[in-house]
Amino acid sequence: MMPPKGRKNRRSLGPDVISNLPDNVIDVILMRLPCKDAVRTSILSKKWRYHWCRLTKLKLDESLWKTKKDKLSPTVKFTKIIYQILTLHEGPINKFKLDVVDSKRCPTIDNFIYFLSRNDIQHLVLHFPWQKIYKMPSSLFECSQLRHLTLHDCSIHPPSAFKGFSSLVSLELCRVTISFELLESLINHCPLLERLVLQVSEILNIIEINAPMLKSFDFTGSISSLCLKNVPLLTKASLHLYQGSSVEAENFYLAKFFESCFALEHVSLYFGDKFDYACADQAPTRLPFDHNRVKHFYVPYMNPRESYKLSYYLCLIRSFSYLESFETEVLNLHDAGVVESLELERFSDVIFNHLKEVKLKIFSGMTHEMQLIKLFLAKSPVLVRVLIDPSYLCIKNLISLDRRSEIFAEFSNFFRASPKAEVVYMYLDNQTSRFNQIVNFD
User: Fold this and answer.
1) pLDDT tens digits, 157-193
2) How far apart are the C-alpha atoms of 114 and 119, rounded to whole Å?
3) Across-strand partners of 152?
4) Is the N or C terminus of the chain more exposed, i.e. has fewer CB atoms within 10 Å?
5) Last residue of a domain, one of 28, 54, 80
6) What is the helix (H) or strand (E) element at residue 80, kind and residue range?
7) pLDDT of 131-158, one tens digit each?
8) d(CA 299, CA 318)
């Protein structure tokens, strides 16, 4: 039986087509493959055999050496892989990512870091095993062309001769052991830094940050005081403050923070558990000034029963005179009754002239939540939408359909300052279909 016309030609052309692909096309193909699969392409033809050795982007994780029939320890296999890359690789490596966060032992990569420092590394991401602090070699600070650096669960100690990363635009340090003096020096010696992420596990003292190009700042941890001295371009800031941080009514350091960040537009703020605080009655009603640039304010995990935290959140809401959107997740499934700090009378001198959208997640319809909605409806003359999302409670069957209907009916009795304002109530039914109910106040 003769094969269909043309089939023989197609079969004979296949390998030739693969072998004769232009180098730039092969590079694109290899860069889109996992590292293990990229190495496997070496069996396709002589042209492909060592092409992976010229990859400018490498990602190493446990999928490279972890199999169901392991005979060698992961550390030994990892060392062999690193050795092969060191001996076979040609040309620059612009981007390298190592993820061994789930490993029981931390492999040694000092030689490889030295190799990267000599091969034009620009984007370096290292995720080490949690609570197995890896001491980074001094060759890290010889990576003079670094533009993006991400380090998780390691310790670093810049040498005294280190003058900073002159090209670095993004720095992310999570659970990295470093003294606050060296941390401050490291940040201040990166003149092009635009994005900074700090997640610290120990309590830090005062940090003074001088970063004239900084646009985004994300801090999670405990700190006595945070001073952004020179950040004229900072537009996004996220602060998650935990035990050991301090907010005092007489020395409200957040006021200093916002005063120095006059270009801020997006703010996320969370006071964690055991956060040091003064009495709620001593909390400032508002900042000493109105911040006229903040447009978006996000407060994760607001619990109205924690009046000392609520007072500080409301202080900032009052002070963000150009606020356009506010979002929070209310984590209190028990009715705390009337929360005095949310009563309309306490906001007699406040109008949210620019507020257009409010979003409440994990909404259960408790008194304090209803007070919050009533407040925004009554004080926001250009408000367009209050979006309420109780999906989590619906999925967990923590709020009944009858209760949802009662809450929805109560909204219609609230006074609204904006004729365009509507309350959009979103939830999931038993068939997991999404429905919206809208109160138009007509």
Assistant:
1) 988 888 899 999 999 999 999 888 889 999 999 999 9
2) 9
3) 127, 174
4) N
5) 54
6) helix 74-88
7) 778 999 999 999 999 999 999 999 999 8
8) 14
